[in-house]
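Let's do one together. I've listed all components of the complex below, 702 residues spread over four lines.
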Amino acid sequence: MRPTVHDIAETAGVSLATVDRVLNDRPGVRGVTKAKVEAAIVSLGYVRDVAAANLAKSRVYPLVFILPEGDNPFMRGLEAEVRRAGLHSPAERTRLSVATVPAFDAGALVKAIDAAIMEDVSGIAAVVVDAPEVSAAIARAHAAGIPFVTLVSDLANSGRDHFVGVDNIAAGRTAGSLMGRFLGERPGAVAVLAGSMRVRDHRERLDGFHAAMPVTRTVLPVLEGQDDPDLSFSLISDCLAANPTLAGIYNLGAGNRGLIKALSARGRADLCVIAHELTAETRAALETGLVDAVLNQDAGHEVRSAIRVLRAKADGLPVISAQERIRLDIFIKDNLPAGPDEDEQPGAAGN
Amino acid sequence: MRPTVHDIAETAGVSLATVDRVLNDRPGVRGVTKAKVEAAIVSLGYVRDVAAANLAKSRVYPLVFILPEGDNPFMRGLEAEVRRAGLHSPAERTRLSVATVPAFDAGALVKAIDAAIMEDVSGIAAVVVDAPEVSAAIARAHAAGIPFVTLVSDLANSGRDHFVGVDNIAAGRTAGSLMGRFLGERPGAVAVLAGSMRVRDHRERLDGFHAAMPVTRTVLPVLEGQDDPDLSFSLISDCLAANPTLAGIYNLGAGNRGLIKALSARGRADLCVIAHELTAETRAALETGLVDAVLNQDAGHEVRSAIRVLRAKADGLPVISAQERIRLDIFIKDNLPAGPDEDEQPGAAGN
DNA sequence: CTGTTAGCGCTTTCAT
DNA sequence: ATGAAAGCGCTAACAG
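Okay, and this is what the predicted structure of the assembly comes out as:
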């Protein structure tokens, strides 16, 4: 049997309460006593039983996720994952809630953050836009002692406690590299569709893409579709019309529906298309060959990571960063995971 | 607060012990009583607190992993992940151990399985070879009531309770598809290096690869390197010498060291090379451009999945299959995860 | 500053 | 067939 608080208390010659104080470094223990207890802890090789601890402090952690509203499938997927995690949340002593705000709207985002601060939640996870007001709101959360993690798109110098998402520069580079190889010697320029240059993840992906593109290949000026299907559709349609020799398209944002509609309208099967986020749409497009590769960040992993990090921060525990790194998945037609149909059961820990 | 066993006892008008008997359907409860309790359970929407349950029954589950010995880096990686999981195992009330046996040796494997059965472990996870004696040993484990999962390579009709690993046919298809695109119109045959056609995962990958290859592309007869670096080296060296116009190599087995040595000896940068399993060697080869893509199954995910499944089976709980699916990762130079150097901290749950 | 005591939600003897 | 009571390992009042 592994050592318990009782064993520590005994070998250190103190009471349980004192051991507990040292363990959770709470005030009210003399230096010598503390030293004795700590000695006992290391000599016995004690490791705390987290499950028992959680059981004893029957505290719950209200966490709020702030996400862009609208029909962006990736964001709705994130929301679904939060709800899914919510089913299991009582076991982890968390209570999850979701607030949605208009996309790319700094003011609304700030309001939502302040509302969460008012409610005195134990942690906030948000998909943020890059604006000074937002950084200020994050600073207020910090000042109120509320852990804050950025989700999907980072805001590094805002004082957020942690970023949960992929390395977006690497994502752009991956797209560029893949596009380069798929195109080979085939001539023609490539187009890039983004949502908005006002979110950092889109800017970073663009940078990475440019960096990985051979200099001999022309990259057209970025099209900003505001992650809106209709706008994206017309931008891509116009682009296809204006550039009959176009060789490829990289969509680094969320306007996949518009993109795919435009592609199927033109029926240009010779185009190399790379998009982000595996959704029902991109999956179907991958299967029909309209899209060649999809880069993905797993929404379930991100949500669970955000929860773990917020909980850790909430009780002052360290975050094991290696464990919280979010990988960039590459999907092609052949390594698609089983579809949502076969996948209905709420997952918990992930693989 | 969500309902507890006390609430059930109260609304059903019985004692805690009876509630527990019904909950764990243990004998010794009259039909009527049972019905009353069950009614209370559903009406209150009770869900058992697993952590508390585990705390109370301070039972431990001894689990054994049986892996091939030798310097196969992927297998050593698996072993390392088992040890890593072992650090956290007390919290999950499991005790992990590893047994290694000579690779591709059915007799040794059978001995190890029988030894585990004798020790009366709570579960066995093994990388198995495809042989009737092995199936028989698995059947003995089953008869002894010991859950058995196959790891990495399956043995479907053996009575194993579960398979933890990737879809190897899809893996082969992915390799073929990627190779086809990377090669484009470039002429030349492709070679395939395997470990042994006696393990099912290698056969399945080969099948998938052939299926995804355009008929216009010649695939040379498979080379069996026994996952041995020296043998793999000479097979590939000879092959390169004999086929000066070779366009690509797919290594579906573990002989990466030999392969890479042969490649760097020849200095043929124009070759498209796809291999399996992200190890220090394949990572380096990816970075230097000697290898173009690496298909990977995450050893950490597999180990944790095996543990979850064995535990679930051990206490008769259902396995959430959607949660236990192991994905096939594609890595290219640009989406390599942070290296082992930055990654030293033992991870627990994974993303 | 330190100790005593009563739980958290569930399981498990041991009685009845 | 059912119940009472004592824990599992830890935390949290409340006393001293």
